[in-house]
């Protein structure tokens, strides 16, 4: 699973390199209230002694957190500083949230899908596998 997270970060780095001046649609980031907060694994689940966070949702942003919040990559800021990601879309309902970002060339995209299980659990639908995340705060 850590390989999936590292691949996700690498995709951000790849998308982050561009000299294009295309405009950015940062109004895409509107996570629904039910998903806002920090999601990951509690220390008792991982056995590491500290919580491992993977996603932080706010009212206008989605951040990828790794290595216990040591590395933070936020989508809104990435699109503002990297015009290579120029368009995106999101779909949300009372129990699901999906966001897709499309590169200027239209060939590469990143899609994240989440499903609500309860007020304290969500499922990250990641490349065909379901990863259960707990609300950390």
Task: Explain how this protein is built.
The chain is α+β, with helices and mostly antiparallel strands. The protein has one domain: Lipocalin (Beta Barrel), CATH 2.40.128. The protein contains three helices and nine strands. A hairpin with a 4-residue loop joins β7 and β8. The radius of gyration is 15 Å and the shape is globular. The N terminus is likely disordered.
Q: Profile the largest sheet.
A: 9 strands, antiparallel
CATH class division: Mainly Beta
Q: What is the succession of H and E elements? A: HEHEEEHEEEEE
Proportion of strand residues: 35-45%
> Would you tell me the structural class of the helices and strands?
alpha+beta
Q: What is the overall pLDDT average?
A: 74
Please give the domain count: 1
Distance between the termini: 22 Å
Q: Ranges with pLDDT <50 over ≥5 residues? A: 1-26
| CATH structural architecture | Beta Barrel
Helix content bin:
10-25%
Radius of gyration: 15 Å
- With strands numbered from the N-terminus, the spatial order across the biggest sheet is 4-3-2-1-9-8-7-6-5
The total of helices stands at 3
Anisotropy-based shape: globular
Organism: Flavobacterium ammonificans
Keywords: Signal
Signal peptide: 1-19
Protein name: Lipocalin-like domain-containing protein
Describe the structure concisely.
By secondary structure, the protein is α+β, with helices and mostly antiparallel strands. The chain is built from three helices and nine strands; from the N terminus they run αβαβββαβββββ.
């Amino acid at each position: 699973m850590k390989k999936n997270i590292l691949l996700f970060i690498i995709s951000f780095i790849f998308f982050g390199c561009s000299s294009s001046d295309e405009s950015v649609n940062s109004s895409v980031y509107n996570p629904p209230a039910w998903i806002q907060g920090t999601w990951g694994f509690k220390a008792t689940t991982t056995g590491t002694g500290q919580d491992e966070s993977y996603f932080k949702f706010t009212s206008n942003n989605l951040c990828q957190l790794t290595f216990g919040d040591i590395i933070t990559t936020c989508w809104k800021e990435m699109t503002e500083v990297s015009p290579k990601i120029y368009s995106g879309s999101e779909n949300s309902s009372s129990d699901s949230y999906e966001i897709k970002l499309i590169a200027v060339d239209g060939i590469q995209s990143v899609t994240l899908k989440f499903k609500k299980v309860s007020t304290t659990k969500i499922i990250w639908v990641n490349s065909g596998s379901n990863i259960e995340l707990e609300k950390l705060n």
